[in-house]
Amino acid sequence: MFRLSFIPAACVLLFAAYNVSHSQAQWALDTVITVGTNPTGIAITSDGSKLVVTDKTSPGKVVVMSTLDYSVSDIDVSSIENNPNGVVITPDNATALVTTTHKVIFIDLTKNSVKGQFTAPCAGTTLYGIAVTPSGTTAVFPDLSSGCTGQGLRMIDAAGPTSGSSFIPISTTGVLYGIAISHDSTSAIVTTSMFDSPKIVNLLTSAVQGIAGISGSYGVAMLHGRNEAVLFDGDSVDHVSLTNKSVIKKISYLSYNTTFQSIAVTADDKYAFVVGAFEKLVISLASDSVIQTFTAGGTNVAAAPDGSRFYVTDAYNGTVRVYKMAAPTAVRTLEGVRPTGYRLLQNYPNPFNPTTTIEFSLSDRSYVQVDIYDALGRLVRNLFSGEKSPGTYRFEWDGKSESGLPLSSGVYFYRLRTDKFADVKRMLYLK
Hints:
Blueprint: E1 2-7, E2 18-19, E3 24-34, E4 39-44, E5 50-55, E6 61-66, E7 72-76, E8 87-89, E9 95-99, E10 103-108, E11 113-119, E12 131-132, E13 138-143, E14 152-157, E15 166-169, E16 179-181, E17 187-190, E18 199-202, E19 208-210, E20 220-222, E21 228-232, E22 236-241, E23 246-253, E24 260-265, E25 271-276, E26 280-284, E27 289-294, E28 300-303, E29 309-314, E30 319-329, E31 333-334, E32 346-348, E33 355-362, E34 366-374, E35 379-388, E36 391-398, E37 410-418, E38 422-429
Antiparallel strand pairs: 1-36, 2-31, 3-30, 4-5, 5-6, 6-7, 8-9, 9-10, 10-11, 12-13, 13-14, 14-15, 16-17, 17-18, 18-19, 20-21, 21-22, 22-23, 24-25, 25-26, 26-27, 28-29, 29-30, 32-33, 33-36, 34-35, 34-37, 37-38
C-alpha cells in the first residue's frame, strides 16, 4: 500500500549527475529511441551501422535499427518462441543469433527476417549470454539445465540454421550467465552468477578452470587484442587475465551491490562501458580507471567500434538510450547541480517498520518512475510511473502489505528516474 501527496513548487530544486573530465573523452545523452516494451539484449555490427535489440516479451520480437537515422524494423519471432533475450552478430554482419528460453533463433540481417532456429536438446535452457568465435564459425552459449547433461557450454554452427551441437559440461554451484570468447577463438570465459568463480573453458580440449580471487560474476566482455577480459563480480568491475587466470586489477567498487547487466569494449580496447541496475561507468582500459559515471542504470550495452557512441537498452521504459562522445576536455561537464545541503530524494523514518515516506522534488514537468529494489537489485515494487508537474511529492509505502506478506528484514533501495536525472538511496526495513 502507498499514498502520494503533492506540495506546490515553491522551493523545488533540480539535481542531475555531474561528471568531471580530466583531459579524457566524455559522453553525454544524445537521443532516446522507443523500441518496445521490454528491450534487453543489444548487439552492434562490426562496421557500426546496425543495432539488433531483443524485446523480451510475448509476443516476442527482435528490432533491427539503423545507427545512421535510427529507423527501426521489427521482426516477429513469436511463431518460434517468445521472450527473446541474448543476442550476438556474426563477424560478417550477415546473421544475428538470439537466445530464448529453449531455442536460438537465426536472423538474416540482409533481409531482416527469420531464417531458422536451433532447439536445445532435452528442453535445455539457453536464455542468457551468447557469443560467436572471432573466426565466425561457431556460436557458444550457456546451456543452463538441459536435463540430460547438466550445466555447460553448447556449441553450434554460427551460420545456421542447424540441428547439431556439441557440449562441454561445467561443474558449478552458480548459474552460468555471461560469456565472451578469446580473440584466437580457442577459449571462453563464462560467468557464474553468485557463489562460484568465473570459468575459463578451453574450447578445443574442454578443460575448465576457475579465476582466482572471484566468488561470483555476471556480465563479461573480452578485449580484442589481448587474452584479457573485463567482468563484473557483484561488487566491482575487474580486469582479468585468461592466461594467468587471475585478477589484474579491481577497477571500481560500485556504490551499491547490484546485479550486473552488461559490458561492452571498443574495438581498439581503449574504453569499456559498464551498465548496472543503478549506474553506468565509462572505464579507461589504458589506466584501468573510471573516467565517467552516470547515476542512472540500464539493462544492456553495445559500443560503436570507435567508441564514438554507446547504446543502452532500458527494460523499464522500453527505450534505447544513445550516448555520444564529445571532444576531450579538461573542463567539468555538468548535467545538473545538487544543491548543497538539500536532499533531493529521501525517506523517513529510516530504519522503518511498517511504513516509510519517500520524498522527491522536480523543477520541470517530467516523466517520473519510482521503484523499490532488494539488496540483489531485484525489483520489489514500481511505486509510480507517469508524468508529473514541478513540485515536491511524497509516497508512503507500507512494507507489511507488500504482496500480502511482510518484507524480510534488510537493506532495500529506492530509485527515482526522470527525463533529466536519476537518484538512488538506501533504506533499512526492520521487523
